[in-house]
């Protein structure tokens, strides 16, 4: 009897022991399952958070409006003699401009020929030899525009020569140019005989014939019109030739009929005539932002008189000169009996933002005299 009782107690003990193990195993499994669920939840939460962050970043980059830039397009013979003056002008405005330089084929801007980092390697590929009074000047402009249009942020395109100087600081210049949706293109009817070649008709009719300064400021739309032109440019190449001058007749034979040659000056007619032909004159402000002084008595040769603007040398570079240029607030066009009163942002303003032609000594004298804006703090009244 005692033995049966002991056996029963042992059996109950073993059952209870097995039951405890079963409960322990079940609890362990439940704990393990719970731990896995927590890990899964945390992983899902992390992935969700990461996904949300990436989505927000994508949306943020999509909706951020990138700031427009002005492309400064320099036409140079070789180096830029006024590079350090422009260096002071551009300093601190790196996100608001781009620079492109057309120089002679093979010329490379490096530390040996420019002290400004802004011009290092900024020469465009595919440059050509440019001859004054020939259509090659137009092609150089078109090459510069092709390169500048690659950057979608470039919204204005300013043509400058290697002898140009800025009259105001960058911020004032930028606001002035960007305050209007128009291009700045000096353009007026050219009634001087011998400039228009009748052979250009009918593709380039005489009533679209215009003249003006080549130093224009174009909107992106008008820059694309120039680059995509396949009609007017070939006409200029074929029929807009420079008339032979007496001093060159020893190198080239005198043409049989010199009356058939036309002193067209392509760079002063092309953009103006193209925009007129395309019906876009309503989208331009018909004046230049670059000042040039044309002295009709500067040459002894009547055929060359007035063909080139005055060059300012060291002795000419004075505060009085700069202020006289800044004070110009209107331009009169004789052929159209039109006086263009200059304005900016709907208010009367000075006409010019740039000036030429300045020698290197003259430009650096002005910079040393702190005459040119003070580039750090120019105002509308400066």
UniProtKB/TrEMBL annotation:
GO molecular function: glycosyltransferase activity
InterPro entries: BC10-like (IPR044174), Glyco_trans_14 (IPR003406)
Membrane topology value: Single-pass type II membrane protein
Pfam families attached to this UniProt entry: Branch
Compartment(s): Membrane
UniProt GO cellular component terms: membrane
Protein biosynthesis as UniProt keyword: no
Alphabetical UniProt keywords: Glycoprotein, Glycosyltransferase, Membrane, Transferase
UniProt keyword Membrane present: yes
Family annotation (PANTHER family): CORE-2/I-BRANCHING BETA-1,6-N-ACETYLGLUCOSAMINYLTRANSFERASE FAMILY PROTEIN-RELATED, GLYCOSYLTRANSFERASE BC10
Protein name in the entry: Core-2/I-branching beta-1,6-N-acetylglucosaminyltransferase family protein
């Amino acid at each position: 009897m005692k033995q049966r009782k002991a056996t029963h107690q042992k059996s109950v003990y073993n059952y209870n022991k097995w039951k405890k193990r079963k409960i322990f195993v079940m609890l362990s499994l439940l704990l393990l399952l719970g731990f896995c669920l927590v890990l899964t939840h945390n992983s899902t939460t992390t992935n969700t958070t990461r996904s949300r962050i990436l989505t927000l970043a994508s949306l943020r980059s999509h909706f951020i409006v990138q700031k427009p830039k002005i492309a400064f397009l320099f036409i140079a013979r070789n180096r830029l003699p006024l590079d350090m003056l422009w260096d002071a002008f551009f300093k601190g405005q790196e996100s608001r401009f781009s620079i492109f330089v057309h120089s002679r084929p093979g010329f490379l801007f490096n530390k040996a020929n420019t002290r400004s980092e802004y011009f290092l390697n900024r020469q465009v590929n595919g440059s050509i030899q440019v001859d004054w009074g020939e259509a090659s000047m137009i092609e150089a402009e078109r090459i510069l525009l092709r390169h500048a249009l690659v950057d979608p942020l470039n919204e204005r395109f300013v043509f400058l020569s290697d002898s140009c100087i800025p009259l105001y600081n960058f911020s004032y210049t930028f606001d002035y140019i960007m305050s209007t949706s128009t291009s700045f293109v000096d353009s007026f009817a050219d009634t001087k005989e011998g400039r228009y070649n009748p052979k250009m008709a009918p593709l380039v009719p005489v009533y679209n014939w215009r003249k003006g300064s080549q130093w224009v400021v174009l909107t992106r739309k008008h820059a694309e019109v120039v680059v995509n032109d396949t009609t007017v440019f070939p006409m200029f190449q074929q029929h807009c030739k420079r008339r032979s001058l007496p001093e060159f007749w020893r190198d080239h034979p005198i043409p049989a009929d010199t009356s058939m040659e036309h002193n067209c000056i392509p760079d002063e007619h092309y953009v103006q005539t193209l925009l007129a032909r395309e019906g876009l004159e309503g989208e331009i402000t018909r004046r230049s932002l670059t000042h040039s002084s044309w002295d009709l008595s500067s040459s002894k040769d009547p055929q060359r008189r007035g063909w080139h603007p005055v060059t300012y040398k060291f002795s000419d570079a004075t505060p009085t000169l700069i202020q006289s240029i800044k004070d110009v607030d209107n331009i009169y066009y004789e052929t159209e009996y039109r006086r263009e009163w200059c304005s900016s942002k709907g208010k009367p303003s000075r006409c010019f933002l740039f000036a030429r032609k300045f020698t290197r000594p003259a430009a650096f004298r002005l910079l040393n005299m702190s005459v040119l804006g003070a580039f750090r703090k120019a105002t509308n009244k400066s």
